[in-house]
Every structure is written in C-alpha cells, then in structure tokens.
Amino acid sequence: MAVCTTGLGTFATSLRFCRKLQHQNERLFSTSMCRPAADSEPPKFVPPSKPVIVDKTQTVTSLRKFLSPEFVPPRQRTVPFKFFLERKDMIRRRKMLNIPEFYVGSILAVTMADPNASGKTNRFVGICIQRGGNGLGATFVLRNIINNQGVEICYEMYNPRIQKIEVLKLEKRLDDNLMYLRDALPEYSTVDPEMKPVPFSPTGEVPVNSLKVKMLPKPWSKHWERPKFNIQGISFDLCMTPNQMAGAQKRAQPWREYDMLREYDTTELKEQILKEVQEDMSK
Amino acid sequence: MKMLAKLGCRLLLQRGAQLISPRAAAESPIQLLGCVRTLKKTTWFEEHLTEDNQTYLRNLMAEEYRKQTASKLNPLRDEPWPRQDWTEGSRRVGLVAVKLGMAPIWTKTGERHVVTLLQVQDCHVIKCLPKEEFDGHTAALVVGGKNVSPFHRSEEQMEVFRNAGVPPKQKLTIFKVSDNAIIKPGTPLYAAHFRPGQYVDVTAKSIGKGFQGVMKRWGFKGQPASHGQTKTHRRPGASGPGGDPAKVFKGKKMPGRMGNTYITAHGLKVWRVNTKYNVLYVHGTVPGHRNCVLKVRDTVLPTRRSTLLNPPFPTYFTEEEVDLDEDLYDDNLFVHTEPSVTLT
Predict the structure, then answer these.
(1) Which cellular component, as a GO term, is one annotated location (chain A) (predicted)?
(2) Contact B178, B139 (CB under 8 A)
(3) Residue B245 CB partners (closer than 8 Å, separation 6+)
C-alpha cells in the first residue's frame, strides 16, 4: 500500500509539472496562434454540426446476417424452381411491408386490418411462441393473457391484411418452441399491451434469455418432461421428482442422433439463399 | 426381342451374371449387392458403348433438342396454316403441363385461397388429325409435353416425333378441336394461351394407393371397434339382396387397386399466368402427385363459358403479342407489389 501511494504521489507531481508547462506554453503561444495574418479575411463562421438524433425506438434494419426460416425450403420432392418463384413473391411483399428479424421468445406487436374492429385495425401484442410453415404460408403464433384469459393468435407473415409488425423486445429463449407456456404460470405469458419498445443493437449477438419457467401442477397438455421435446426452459426440479424424471428418460431414443437419413444439412442452401435474398432486397 | 422375353427371367439373369462376372473379380462380394441390375428385355443404348461414347451421345442429344426448339421458336414465319377467328362455338387446343406444387394467394378483400402451380414445359403440337381421320365428327390435335431422352423410346414412337421435328415427349394427349382451330404440327404452345379469369379443366392420373380395402376405396362405414365384434372391423359386410337374384351384381364395390386412374377436376379458375417461366396458377387442388404431367384445357362447364370471350385463337404466338407483362393477374387477386389491404 505504501508503495502504491508513493507511486501515485510521484505520478501526481509529474502531472502537475506537465500541466504547468502546458499552461505556460499556452500563454506564450496563445496570442501568436490566434492571429495568423492580420490582412487575410477573418475565418468564416462555420456553425457547429447539428446533433444527429438517432431514434432507437424505431425499427432499425438488422445488420446481422439473418435469414428468416421460411426461406429455407424443406426436404421434399418439390423442384427448387417452385421455391424460387415463391421467394420472388415473398421478397416483393417484404419490400412493401418491413418484416423485422425476430425469434421465438421475442415480444411483437402486430397491426392487422379487421372488418369487425372499430377503426378497422386491430393491434395485438404478445410473445412469439412458435414459427411455422414455409414460403408464403409461413406463420407465427403470438401469446398473451388478456383479462385473465390466455389468447393465442396465429398470424400469416405474408397476409396482405397485416399492416405493421413491430418487435418490442428482441430476444431468444432456450427453446425453439414455447408451447409449454400454456402449462406454465400465467405471469410468464403476460405481456403489457402498452409496452414501450426496448432498444436493441442492430449488430452483435441476439440476447438469450435463459429463463427457467415454473409450471402449473400436472396434468399438462403434453408431457413436456419427455426427451422427445428436448425442453431446456422449464425448471423441472421444482415440479418433478428425480424418479419421475428417470421415468421420462425411459422414452429416450438415443439412436436418433446417429440416424444419417434424418440429417438435413442446410448450411450451403442457407448461404446461397441469403445471398440471393440480400441482392434482391437491395434492388 | 420378344423371343428373349419369352425365354424368361432365368436366361436373362444368367446373361446378366455373365456380364457382371468379369467385373466381379475386381469387386468384393459386398459391393456386388449394390449393383443389382433391373430386368432389361431389349438392348439398351449404353450396353455396347464405351463411357466416352455414352457422354458424347448424351451431349449430342441435348444439343439436338436445343436446335429443334430454336428452329420452332417462330411458328408464324415458317408457313403457318391459315388462321381463323374465334367464333361462339369453337373449341381450341389445350396444353400439357407439369404440377410443381401449391401456394397460398389472397384476394383484394383479404380472403385466402390456395392455388396449384402448373408449369408448361416444352409443349408442342405433334400431329393434326382431320375430321375424316379421327372419328368423322371433330378434328383432333395430338399435343406432347415435357422432353424426355430418346434412348428409351422405340423406333415407331421416335418416327412420330421426327415427322414433327420435335424432341420426344413424355406425354401425348389428344385434344378434340373445332375445324377452325387446327394448328400446324411443330408449333410450340405457351402458358399465355390461358388468361387469368378464365376457367380450366385439369386431367391427370391420380396418386396410386395400391390395393386398398373397402373403407378407404369406397367410403364404407365398416363395423364398430368393440361391443363383441369378432374379427370384423373394416369388412364390407353384406354383398347383395339375397335369395332372389342369388348372385352378386356386376360392379359391386369391393376391395381392389385404388388410384392411378385419370381424374378430371372441372371449373378451376386461372388466377395468374407467368409468361416468362410459363407457369399457370390454378385454383384449388389438382389430381396427381408433384412433378406429374397433366392435361389442361378450357372448361366444358356451361356456366363458366362466359369467361372465355376472345381468347388467343387458335393459340398464343410470341411474335404477335410481344408486349405482354411478365405476370398477368386476375382483377380480384392481391399482387404483392401493392400496399397492404385496408378494409373500410
């Protein structure tokens, strides 16, 4: 400790010395610098640049390399040409309506044209629990609890009645499918309809919310503890005994991960389609 | 060649074994299981050729196809038959298309429908059968679609295609046509022959289900699952009235092969036509599996005939209507380049 203080002391004195020198030098040079030449015109007044106000609440186009999952064709006997035609239509729609990047677990607000609603538009805020479908028929399910009633709405991404899709909170969860929220405590599915959008950065990693959800007492709509669903986001130690967990593991099929016929490697396809989509979107 | 077939499988298999045996020395017995040869009754084109020659022939075939299609691109220039105008009762040709798949579409009011995409691949008129040759009442045109390799087609079939100057096709169909709608053989047919808003009939072979029971094939109700039923849950039950006829009538619905028969879907609306890639977007579902070849023609239904006023007659020629848009849409269809639908 004594060593540190002495070190600091010497540092401080040397700083003060430097600053003194600087001040003296300034006083020496200040007058000469201000007047370069008396006969030239006075320097033009350059107004200070306006501060750029970046509105982080508006949707910022993501700079991450993200390809929406509905662009990736499934493993079928369909000719790639059919997917190409569908992709052209999807890009045309995306140029008219901005469909932002979002994942299962993000909180979205969707404004849709509704003939039965007052003002003819209907805004629904919810947490995305599932993304399904391929091509133009791609869907996502938003869940929220309104007046103590759980409500899930399945929206088609390319439906022309959708007027606006906003991402209020961009985040990922530990699973790709949050259907277990139906059997979880209602607090985990409640989203404030008047929620303000949380700003997120367009670059960098998407934040992963490693929340472990508490469940309602059994019976559940599905046996979420079984290895078939492979759910990481439920805290099983609070609702199940080790015996029950072991019983669920009996239904494990460990050979499935070695089954080569089930492999579908989409990395090359994804790269190629991402390049194509980015080119078409920038046109 | 027929003699060979009559001699039976045994000789062929022996012959096959003789062919494979010189190679067997090099390959291990495990690898031999992979190259099981399917039954080939006649000599196939690769049998006596070296590999270089095989690739050369394949490339030659592709080049020939390209030349043939290129030479037929301007049908109006090489002495077409005299064209006549469309009248009320005239019937025009149809097309042969390939079923690509299905996709959703939305109308301008926001309703969702499903459409099947049909692509017209290399559709040409092969032969014209005038009234006297065909059946004495109507003229007919033989149309072919979807190019296929010539190596597995017999000489008689190849002669037909050579007369038309066109590559061999997978499917040949006959379209009954009125006398004023006959077209010269060799004319290419495109998807713009049909326009959005009109109705079509699509004929194709339905998906084969194999030997099926009476419940799936004819929709019988079967029997209850429990309450004492002994070994009878999906059976047909009674097969006729009883003692008076004392027989089972012909045509009694029984188990048998289901599917793989020609089925026609009538009155399907054409929502959209892509003239660049020759794709038709046709309402609803269509018989057949993906990538199957179908026959598409104007509707026979009397209530939908009013939509067929002034169609391209006898067919659509690219040289005539040069300024067609890449995509032709129906009036009610929502195009994705428009802004979102707002309901008032």
Answers:
(1) mitochondrial large ribosomal subunit
(2) yes
(3) none
Q: Are B296 and B97 in contact (CB under 8 A)?
A: yes
Q: Say whether B117 and A161 touch across the interface (CB within 8 A).
A: no
The token pair that represents B60 in the structure block: 């030659």
Q: What is the rounded average pLDDT of the residues B291-311? A: 91
Q: Which of B117, B277, B341 sits opposite A113 (nearest CB)?
A: B341
Per the structure block, which two tokens stand in for A80? 């790639």
Angle at alpha carbon of residue A138, lines to A270 and A69, rounded to 5°: 20
Give the whole-angstrom CA distance, residue A281 versus residue A276: 9
Give chain B positions within 8 Å (CB) of A81: 100, 119, 277
Q: Dihedrals φ, ψ of B115, to 5°?
A: -130, 155
**Angle between helical axes of A267-282 and A80-96 (0-180°, round to 10):** 40
CA angle A200, A203, A206 (to 5 degrees): 60
Q: CA triplet B53, B57, B63: central angle to 5 degrees?
A: 145
Whether residues B119 and A161 touch (CB distance < 8 A) is answered with no
Q: Distance (Å) from the C-alpha of residue B291 to the closest C-alpha of chain A?
A: 7
Examine residue A197 and state whether it is found in any structural domain, yes or no. yes
Token digits of residue A171: 């985040």
| The pairing of beta strand B169-177 with beta strand A172-173 | unpaired
CATH number at residue A196: 2.30.30.790
Q: Is position A234 within any domain? A: no
Residue A4 within a domain: no
Nearest Cα residue in chain A from B103: A136
> How far, in Å, CA of A269 to CA of A176, rounded?
21
In angstroms, the CA A210 to CA B201 distance is 55
C-alpha–C-alpha distance, residues B202 and B190, integer Å: 16
Which residues of chain A does B343 touch, with a Cβ-Cβ cutoff of 8 Å?
113-115, 120, 161
Residues A159, B117: C-beta atoms closer than 8 Å:
no
Query: Which CATH number does B75-209+258-329 carry?
Result: 2.40.30.10
- What is the distance, to the nearest Å, from the Cα of residue B162 to the centroid of all Cα atoms in its chain? 21
CB atoms B337 and A113 under 8 Å: no
Measured in angstroms, the CA of A79 and the nearest CA of chain B are apart by 7
Cβ-nearest to B342 among A93, A120, A158: A120
pLDDT class of A24 with cuts at 50, 70, 90: low
Q: CA separation (Å) from A93 to A98, B240, B340? A: 9, 59, 9
Is 0.95 surpassed by the pTM of this model?
no
For residue A282, being part of any structural domain is answered with: no
Full domain range(s) for residue A202: 69-216
Domain ranges of chain B: 75-209+258-329
In tens, the pLDDT along A180-212 reads 999 999 999 999 999 999 998 888 889 999 999
DSSP B258: E
**Distance between CA B276 and CA B196 in Å, rounded?**
15
Burial annotation B36-51 (CB, 10 A radius, 16+ → b, else e): eeeeeeeeeeeeeeee
Looking at residue B43, what is its pLDDT?
75
The alpha carbon of residue B342 and the mean position of all alpha carbons in its chain are separated, in whole angstroms, by 40
Q: Report d(CA B305, CA B87) in Å as an integer.
A: 13
For B110, the closest of A90, A93, A160 (CB atoms) is A160
User: How many domains does chain A contain in total?
Assistant: 1
